[in-house]
Amino acid sequence: MWSGRFREPLNPQFEAWQRSFPFDWRLVQVEVRASIAHARALAAAGILSPIEEQQMIAGLHAIGEITLQSEQHRNDPAAPFAASAAQAEDVHHFVELELTRKLGDLALKLHTGRSRNEQIATDMRLYIRNALDDVLRGQREWAIALLALARRSGTAVMPSYTHLQRAEPVLVAHWLLAYVSMIERDMSRLEDCRVRMNLCPLGSGAIAGATIALNRSIAAQALSFQAPTSNSMDATSDRDFALEFTQALSIFGLHVSRFAEEITLFSTAEFAFVDLPEAFSTGSSAMPQKKNPDLTELLRGKAARLFGASATLSLLLKGLPLAYNKDLQEGQEPVFDAADTALGILSVLPSFTRTLRFRSDRMAAAAASGYLNAMAAATYLSNKGVPFRKAHEQIGNAVRYALESGRELEQLTLTELQTFGEAFAEDFYAAITIEATLDCHDVPGGTARHRVAAALDAADQRIAAVGDLGGKEASGVR
Ligand code: ARG
User: Rounded to 10 degrees, what is the CA torsion of 162, 165, 168, 172?
Assistant: First the structure.
């Protein structure tokens, strides 16, 4: 590929070690597509005759198809191409070798006016764009599963926690909608990232721009990029899109890990808020009674792996001089791994979520004890004109008194209550029922029952509006 200037053979260990083909074969489909786009631009520039263009495109299509088929059968698309695979330094070299086998010298014209530096930048954008759309589809499916669970939970209540201490009762649906909010941000982060990355590096050459007058819009359009990139030095060395992708996936992983942790905690005998679905749990080879939350534990672990990918990319890019440097080759595997990890998470998370069954009796009992209505009680007093600080103190005293006799606030008599303040009246008891305690949070985004019902409808509509993304091309890669 580049041996003209060299007189000595490469050290064989170095030669094998510096190859990227063992992992970048995953780019073969996008490499073929990008090469077809470049062939079109070459033909428009008069470098390829119409016949040559046709032959070139047909040859590239054939490579794409055979590699795709073998990819579907086994994990090694290069298997039918053993000879080229053994020789190939990277996926670009591989496609060129194969094309040369098919077309002879005509194939060698394909590299006119282009460089592997712009090719790898283009391939990675195409790969990530596909992976990103697949992740978005999975995230949307998870949001739909959470919404269904929230709807099914109706007006079931649970305690909410701050400092992992019981705080106030909330609707189970309200708690689940918190995760829908997170996933909506995750989706919008990926969509933002998609817009920024959707520019075509082809035509940037090795660093300074193509040496032939290419119409760069041809390749950009053929690959459904919004436009060509605007600076050849940036385009050949930029991997922000990969960094953003892995960072967005890290934040998604962080959200998944919080959900996973709560489910793990809630499945303990101490909480017993949820029965782990057997289909998604594992036993212990030592302790016969065990049902372990391996799925949620693994989800927490996978989040660490996503952070690892984004950390690798950050470190790789920090201080890297312009423009292309071979270091960048090390940025591919973390991207593949992050995409695989996120899609792996999403292959189980929606179905796991759909299967979850909460122990609403246990949750309701936990929400009904431990003075979770103290805030509502203080609000009752403040509605009667008692300044909130005073109301807080009076209820605090009442809680202390109730604790001593092992009772809840609603179990204190009116006479007892009135020793803490004059504003207590018979209507106090109605103001601190579980329903009243929920409904006094009557603000948008609060846990009042009608607010949660409205929030659920609104979230349903927003998620439906995201569309099923079915219109976007399916990746076929990975
Ligand atoms: N395999 C290389 C990579 O992934 C392709 C670009 C090689 N460019 C070069 N100038 N050596 O980065």
Answer: 80
